[in-house]
Write a structure and sequence with these properties.
Shape of chain B: globular
Shape of chain A: globular
Oligomer: heterodimer
Number of strands of chain A: 12
Number of helices of chain A: 0
Radius of gyration of chain B: 13 Å
Largest interface: A-B, 23 and 26 residues
Largest sheet of chain A: 6 strands, mixed
Helix content of chain B: under 10%
Low-confidence stretches of chain A: none
Strand content of chain B: over 45%
Mean pLDDT of chain B: 95
């Protein structure tokens, strides 16, 4: 079964500090794509960052970066200089080459303290 | 706003009734996805379309569920003989290319009494 595990149900960070959200996944495929999505309270889900498994270089998007460890099947998200607007549920997800469906983890609720 | 839209945003129904939800994807997107999200969980895949063709269905999609995308534009998801376990947020997403970012709509929250 395809699974994504987010071991931290909740995390908190002080404004302007850095926080890392963990994600591990299970797949036997070599070709797949990894995503972090953000779901603010009562708002729709938006993409934070995307990583192609065949690329060794870690993806970055402004204050957001990932640590992709393919052998360990780990895909953590680092948020630098945290802002109040970063408070949300964060979901790790992946899809395998051959299926376009996204498989999501249960999410991590991030609180940003002023 | 040219994002993904869903209608209605909220639906309350009694057990045994039929409900239908609509999703309008971003206009140039040929791929459309349906997910279901229950409280405290991540979204779970239900089905997806490429244009009007339904290419994959989850085992979660029982015989009471049917989805269509007749002209390759908007899609409908119908649930027949609703059960309390169907209560969830139903999310629609669309994309232009396979494995690209999926753009999500605001969801339809279904409550079955």
């Amino acid at each position: 079964a395809q699974t994504v595990t987010q071991s931290q149900p909740e995390m908190s960070v002080q404004e302007a500090e850095t926080v890392t959200l963990s994600c591990t996944y299970d797949t036997s495929e070599s070709d797949y794509y990894l995503f972090w999505y953000k779901q603010p309270p009562s708002r729709q889900m938006i993409l934070v960052i995307r990583q192609e498994a065949y690329k060794q270089q870690n993806a970055t998007e402004n204050r957001f970066s990932v640590n992709f460890q393919k052998a360990a099947k780990s895909f953590s998200l680092k948020i630098s200089d945290s802002q109040l607007g970063d408070a949300a549920m964060y979901f790790c997800a992946y899809n395998q080459g051959g299926s376009e469906k996204l498989v999501f983890g249960k999410g991590t609720k991030l609180t940003v303290n002023p | 706003d040219t994002g993904v839209s869903q209608d209605p945003r909220h639906k309350i129904t009694k057990r045994g009734q039929n409900v239908t939800f609509r999703c309008d994807p971003i206009s140039e997107h040929n791929r459309l996805y349906w997910y279901r999200q229950t409280l405290g969980q991540g979204p779970e895949f239900l089905t997806y379309f490429q244009n009007e063709a339904q290419l994959e269905k989850s085992r979660l999609l029982s015989d009471r569920f049917s989805a269509e995308r007749p002209k390759g534009s908007f899609s409908t998801l119908e649930i027949q003989r609703t059960e309390q376990g169907d209560s969830a947020m139903y999310l629609c997403a669309s994309s232009l290319n396979p494995f690209d970012e999926q753009f999500f709509g605001p969801g339809t929250r279904l409550t079955v009494l």
